[in-house]
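Co-fold these.
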Amino acid sequence: MSLSVTCYRCGEGDENAARVRCSCGEPRWIEPDASSFAWSDCRDYEGMWRYEPLLPIDRPAGVARAAGGTPLVRSPGLDDTAGCRVYVKDEGEHPTGAYKDRGSAVAVPHAIAAGNDAIGTVSYGNMAMSTAAHAASLDRECVVLVPDEIPAGRLELIAQYEPTIVRVDGDYGALYGDALALSDALPIGMLVSDSPTRISGYKTALFEICEAFAPDAPDAIVVPTSSGGFASGMWRGIRDLEAAGLLDDAPRLYLVQTAAADPITRAFDAGETDPTALSPDETGETIAHSIGNPDPPSGGRALAAARDTGGAVLSVTDDELRAAKRRFAVDAGFCVEPASAASLAGATRLSDRGDIDADESVVLVPTGTGFKELGTGDASVATERVRRADLSERLGSLLGDRLGAR
Amino acid sequence: MSLSVTCYRCGEGDENAARVRCSCGEPRWIEPDASSFAWSDCRDYEGMWRYEPLLPIDRPAGVARAAGGTPLVRSPGLDDTAGCRVYVKDEGEHPTGAYKDRGSAVAVPHAIAAGNDAIGTVSYGNMAMSTAAHAASLDRECVVLVPDEIPAGRLELIAQYEPTIVRVDGDYGALYGDALALSDALPIGMLVSDSPTRISGYKTALFEICEAFAPDAPDAIVVPTSSGGFASGMWRGIRDLEAAGLLDDAPRLYLVQTAAADPITRAFDAGETDPTALSPDETGETIAHSIGNPDPPSGGRALAAARDTGGAVLSVTDDELRAAKRRFAVDAGFCVEPASAASLAGATRLSDRGDIDADESVVLVPTGTGFKELGTGDASVATERVRRADLSERLGSLLGDRLGAR
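Predicted complex below.
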């Protein structure tokens, strides 16, 4: 299959999916010929491979087959908090617990087919785990570049798939550029957050959402945003469906950043086309590890996605994230990572300021499971202590109190 | 809908799904009229609600809608270890990270519809989390009875859904019986590991597996086994499909216990109909927290399931579990909990002793995600440390070593 790999901004393109950046500087993506695609063309495959006709590779072997097909659940318990009709697309229900598996499912087999002896990535979070897992399932060597001061818990999560873990002593933020150069110099397919093949995989989340609503569409989709890769995938998905004539009224894309590192929000508010990288003294600590990115490589494309769809980019604080994470669990039964709570916290802000109406159908996308950061025993938990012999009596009275307090 | 709730052993039954035990002492299950069911009767719903015609309730609201629909992945990387053609049914990809959500999805809404003011359970593991999450998503009070000496990490995992957590001072093993009595005395729907409505939910995992293979069926299914509840669900599913005429050659059910607490294996090997509860000095420590049960309430039914399908019950050691958990990650890209690794460790033993042939298609069912027990930073991890300026040169040489060693 000959690919069309293009730049969303200047329109230039070629067939090289391994080339991440356009000569104009912007990231590229794969543009399929979707003009004749219909929902009935979907394959009878599990998960994201249903959309094989719009993907740059045929369904591969390995854990890639478990990617996609995550639940989309109407969650009325969150309506009051979000100020709209809430649907939750739980991307945490993936083999490595995050939407990253959609991207790895395309990017890793594609890089192998392109002749790379090994796969590599620059990440110490969900992308590292996902890339390592997908390479492992295809029996390929994987190199993960992590910062020298990586916390031991993160290291353990990545190490279980047994990639070669390289702690890089030096400016970790500069490694995105280094990685692209390494890919040219060595037989390693370096997969960064916005490799064109990754973006292809991400768009399947948009396909699943839109197919569930078809022939209608949700009014808006709210996603946590870091590098801008997932937002780009969502936008690419919208473009594909528009090209196919399957989306009359595209959902608005709302992208939510952590206030501790929000260059895309700042650029959106200032009406700029591109974000400006934040200096260390412009960023802060955050519980939203997965989205604290001061220099997002697909920031310009994320801005374009929000503007083109009539959406917005906004930021939320850690206090809002904590509150939203709690509501996900207590009102809807979902355990999401702190960064993923940005989807709900963002929706709350958007409805408060009138961007989202109460009768609108809004899909929140928690991008990763919360289980990777729970169970350490650090939290203090209120419990009752009862002797077994007193259980019936004490439970009866306890229950009366609890039910009365509701 | 009038229910038929029966005893697999003596055949007695009535319509009361809240009654867990038969007067003969054995656990009961819900027996639908499946005689006219065809695959084409499946609903156009996501996940397990596809099988609504064979379930005791209509599709409920809430997180229940996210249950089921887990990936079934051909995983050739595990063939050598397991000694057969391996498929992985990854039950960890659930809202609370375990197959328990299938049971809660039926049992919790059913108990609410039956008029209970609150839901309760006896568990400090996956079932506690799942029951609490499902009750939360339906805005109902939930009471979780945990042992007094529960580890703080476990408590944190359960507490996120904000149930009333009661630490019981006394013999925790005796609480199964207490719970059934409490359910009669108080307006609490106490859901134990083998409540008939839970078993109904579990059987959907079997339906998904068999529908994927239809009109054929896998040769065998290997599941970790603790209380015998999930094994019962698998067997109930087989019986439903046999009643419908959809299963000519049912898969053999192999049930795997931890050698540290394996009363069902002992009874199987001794040719007994029921397991004998193990005393504290007959049990040991194990990393397989989720399946260490010295007194399994559905042990007799699990034995019958294994024998009726031509399968077996067997045990594996912690060393075998550690090795199998590693292979799941390194050869297939799945992060499973230690107890879930019993599926692969069991298959290895079964093929070694000739119970499973190399050309047989065998479904391993890791029942829970490993992420709840990872990321604590306890593991020691080998890494390379490289200065950024030396990255290209050092990576090239590192990679040469790694690829050469393959």
